Fold these 3 entries.
Entry 1:
Amino acid sequence: MGGDLYALDFDGVLCDSCGESSLSALKAAKIRWPTIFEGVSSELEDWIIDQMHFLRPLVETGYENLLLVRLLLEIQIPSARRSSVADGLTPEAILEKWPELKPVIMKEWNEARNELIDLFGSVRDEWMNEDLSGWIGANRLYPGIADALRFSSSHIYIVTTKQCRFADALIKELAGVTIPPEKIYGLGTGSKVEVLKKLQAMPQHQGLKLHFVEDRLATLKNVIKEPALDGWNLYLGRWGYNTEKERKEAESIPRIQLLDLSVFGSKLK
Ligand SMILES: [Mg+2]
C-alpha cells in the first residue's frame, strides 16, 4: 500500500475565479437590490470590481461577494447607505474587520444567507447557459495545474465551498479532466473539517499519506483545532487568496507548510 491522497481547495488553489465571481456578484446585486444599483456609473462598477480583487482573501463562500459589492457601493454613495457601518469605512478597514461587519450588514439589510446563495448560483447558471465560453473564460486555472491534474498518480479530491456543478464544469473545460462526482465535495456536503474526517475514515484510504492544500488560513486553523485530523499534512498556497499578514502568521505555525505553485504542481504528479 502507500501513496498519497490530496484534498484540494478549488478557488485560490486550482482556479483563479476572482474575475468571474466579482462579475457574477455585481450581476446578482443588481437583481437583488435594483433601486440601490440603479444609475451606478461604469466607472464606479470598475472601481468596485477592482476592489473585489483586493478583498478576495475575505471570501469564504461565494454569496459574501454580493455583500462586499453592496458595501463598497455604500462607501462611495452616501444616499445608498442602509447600514450603520459604511460611513467613513475604507476597503482596508473591511479587510481588517470583515468578521464583525458581516453579521451587522446582514441584519441591517435584512438578508438571509441561503437566499443569497441561491441567487448567486442562479446568476451563474444563467451566465453559463447564455454564454458558456464567456463564463469559462472569466476563470483560469493557475499555471501548471491542468497538467498536474491530468497526470497525477495521487488520489485527488476537491474540497470546496463552491457548488459542485461549477467546479466540475471548470475542471472539464479548462483542464480537460473529469473528476468523478464522488470525488468533489462542494457546498452543502458539510464543513471542510467534516469532509477531511470522512475521507480519512474510508477503508480504501487506509495507509495513504494525507495532504490538504488551502489558500485560506482560517480554514487550516480550524483543521488544527481538531485532534482527529492530526494525521493531515497542511499546506497554505502562497499563490492564492491570502494576505502578506496571513502568510507571515502561517510561517509561525509549525503544522502549516507554505507552498509555492511550482512545488505544488510537481508534488501532485
Ligand atoms: Mg480557496
Entry 2:
Amino acid sequence: MHYPSCMARRNSQSTWPDTSTQTQPLTCALCEREVPELVQHHLIPILAGKRKGIKPQDLPTVGLCPACQQYLHSTFSINELATSLNTLEALQADEQVQKFVKWVRKQPATKGVKAKGRE
Ligand SMILES: [Zn+2]
C-alpha cells in the first residue's frame, strides 16, 4: 500500500494548527467519551507497518481512550487490526466493537482502567 507523500511537504505555509497547546476536551474517537487522557492508537499496528516498510511515525493513528485501546489490542490480533480493522470506520462497524462501545459508554470516563491507588 502506498501513501501519498504530499502531506509531508506542506511545511512552507505555516497553516498547521498548533496541537500542542490545545486545551479542548479530549474525546475518544470510538466511544466518544470525554476523557482525561487519550492514547494514540495505530490503525495499522506498528509491527504490521514494519512488514510493509512503513515507519511508525507514518502510520495513521486515532486518539482513543485507554479503555478502547486496551480492548482492541486484547480482542483482535495484529493481523486482524492490520487487514480488516485498519480504519476508524471499520472499527465502528464491527459488531464486537459496537457491543464494547455500548458498554463502555455507561462507564464513568474518569474511572481509570489501571489499578486504583490510595484515595
Ligand atoms: Zn473510548
Entry 3:
Amino acid sequence: MKFSDWISLSPSNILRWTPAASPSSSPVPPPVFSPEISSSQVEDEPFMSPAHHHELKQQLDQYVDEPAKSSKKKNSEENKSSFVIEMEPKSEGSTVVLAWEDLCVSVPSSSSSKGNDRVIIEGLNGYAQPGEVLAIMGPSGSGKTTLLDALAGRLPSNTRQLGVIHVNGRKQTLAFGTSAYVTQDDTLTTTLTVKEAVYYSALLQLPDSMTTSEKKERAETTIKVMGLHGARNTKIGGWNIKGLSGGQKRRVSICIEILTRPKLLFLDEPTSGLDSAASYHVVNRIAKLSRQYRMTVIASIHQPSSEVFNLFHNLCLLSSGRTIYFGPVSAANEFFALNGYPYPTMTNPSDHYLKTINKDFDEDMEQGSGGKLTTTEEAIYKLAEAYKTSQIFQQVKLQVSNLCKREGGILEKGSQASFLTQSVVLTRRSFLNMHRDLGYYWLRLGAYIGLGLCVGTIFLNIGTSFGSIQARGSVLLFVVAFLTFMAIGGFPSFVEDMKIFGRERLNGHYGVAAFVVGNTISSVPYLLMISLIPGALAYYLVGLHKGYQHFLFFALLLFVCMMLVESLMMVVASIVPDFLMGIIVGAGIQGAMILNAGFFRLPNDLPNPVWKYPMYYISFHRYANEGFYKNEFQGLQFPNNQIGGPSTISGEEILKTIWQMPMGYSKWVDLAVLFGMVVLYRLMFFSIIKLSEKKKSSSCLNR
Ligand SMILES: Nc1ncnc2c1ncn2[C@@H]1O[C@H](COP(=O)(O)OP(=O)(O)O)[C@@H](O)[C@H]1O
Ligand SMILES: [Mg+2]
C-alpha cells in the first residue's frame, strides 16, 4: 500500500490494533483495559505477609487494571530470582496516580517571525500508576526531558504549557520537592565517597522516627541495590579528581533519590553510561522497588535491551514531540506490525522502533511488508495517525479520564527530617567537603601566608616615626582590601555547592534555611584559620600596636570581613549562578567598594552624589578600615615633624585630621556594623532563593 493510498483510507478502513499475543517472548499478556478487578484475581507475591496482602488488594481495587495485574505475575517469577530487596513494611501514605491530557509545551520562536511558537511536545495523553514503570522513548531531541519536566513541574520559564496534569485526580502541577527526579546530568559532591554521599543524604531525607542505624542500613541496602557495593569507598570525583566512572555516578544519583522510596520518581535516562548488564539490573531493581513500595516511576530511556524493555509496563514513544505510541509494552510490536513495520526477527524491538521513527538522518527506508520505499517522516506521520485512530488510543483516553475522576490524597513534600537534623547533617557534610576541597580554603591559606610574609618583610618593624603613619595606613588597607578580595578564589567551589543545593532543594531534601545554617557554621573554623595564621604573621612582623587585645581585635575584624565577603559572594551566586560571571561581578562590586574605603580618596573629598551617599555608607571596606585604624592608632603617640606644632601627635588626632574618621563611636561599633552586614547579606541570599522558588512554582501553577 502506498503512503498516499493509506492516508486516503477512511478511519473505518484503517488497520486497528487488536489484543493478541505479542510476537516477542514478553511474559506480559495483552492488555484489557478494565478499570475494575475482583480481589480473587490478585495473586500472592511470595514475600508478602497476609496483612500486606490485604493492603495491596485494597490498593489494587482502587487503581490496578489488568496490565498491572499481569505484571504481578511476572513479578512473582522474578522474585524467585537472584536479588531480593529488603523486607520492610510498606510505608504508609497515599500512592500517586499521574494522568495528563492534551499536554503541549512550546517555546517562543527565536527568529523574527513573532507569534509562531516552536512546539516541543504536542497533544500528549497518558498516565502513570503506582507499582508500574512507564518508559518514555524516542530519538534524542524528541521531547522526553521536556515531558518529564512538564510532569514534574520543572519547565524552564521560557516555555509555555497547555493541557492538564492530574495528580491523584486533582488538577494540579507538581511543585518543589513533591517528587524525586534524577536529572540527565549528575550533580554530586565530588569530594565525598559513595558511602558518605548516600549516608548523608539518608540522614537528610529520612524521618527522625527512624534511628541512625536504620538510616545507615537503608543507605547500605540502597547502595547494594544499585550495585555500588564495590565502589562504596571510592570518591565520586570530578574534573580535578578521578573517581567514579560515568555509569557509577549515574547510579549514585539514582541511589540518592530512591532512599526514601518516593511515591513518584522521575528518571531521565537512568541507564546512560551503563553497560547492558548494569542497565538490566538497575531497571529491574527500580521496577521491583516500585512494586514493593507502590512507587509510580516514569523513566526516559535510550536503547534498552530486549530484557530491559520487557521490564516496563507502559511505553510512551515520541517522535518530534508527537505520540507514536502510548500503551502496554507488549502491544507495541503488534501496533508496529499492523501498520506496516513489523520488527525483523533477531532484532531488539526498541532498536526497531527508534530506527523507524528517527528522522534526524533521514534516508529512504525499506518498508517491511511490501518492500516499497517511504521516508521516515512519512513513517512517523503514518504511525502517529494510526495511533490516533487506534482502539488503544481510545482505551488510553478512557483510562486517563477514569483516573482523572478518582480524587486521592494530596501529595506531600519530600524530606521528613527535622530542621535541626538537616542543619547538623549539612554542617558536617559541608565541613568535610571544605576540608577535602583544596580550592575552598587550603589554597587561599597558602596564598595568605605567602602574602602575610610579603607584607611582614616589606613593612618589617614599622616603628613609630612620623613616616610610619602613612605606612600603617597602607598596611592595614592592603590587609582589608586584598585579603577580602581574594575570597573570590573560593567562589568556584561555592558555585559547585550551589548546584548541589539546587538539585537537592528541587527534590525537597532540605530547605534554604538549613543550607544557609550549614554553610555558615561549617565555614567558621576555616575562616578563623585563614584570618588568624596569616594575620598573626603580618601583625607581629610589621610590629603593629603592641598588646594581645589589639591583635585579637585585628584578627576578629579580619574574620568578620572574610565572612562578610563570603556572604556577599553568596548573594552574587544566587543572582548569577555561572562562576565566571560571578567572579567578574563580585570583583567589580568589591573594586567599587574599596574605592570608598576612605583611603584612596579621603571621606571629605568623596563626591556627595553616589560616592558619599550612599556608597560610603554601604561599602563594608569603610567600616573595616575604620575599625582597623581605630584599633591601631588609638593610644599611640607619634613625633610631630611639623614646624611650630606640638612635639608629639596623638593617634586620635591622626584619625580625626589625617584620616578624617568619624570619632563619635568606638571600633566595636564598626565591628558590630560589619557583623550586622553578615547577617543581612545571608538573609538577602535566603530571600532571593525563596522568592525565585515562589516565582517558579507560581508560574508553573499558572501556566
Ligand atoms: N527551554 C527550551 N528552550 C528552547 N528549546 C528547548 C527548550 N527545552 C527543550 N528545547 C528543545 O526541544 C527539543 C526537545 O528537547 P528535549 O526534551 O531535551 O529532548 P530529549 O530529552 O528527547 O532529547 C530539543 O530540540 C530542544 O532543543
Ligand atoms: Mg533528554
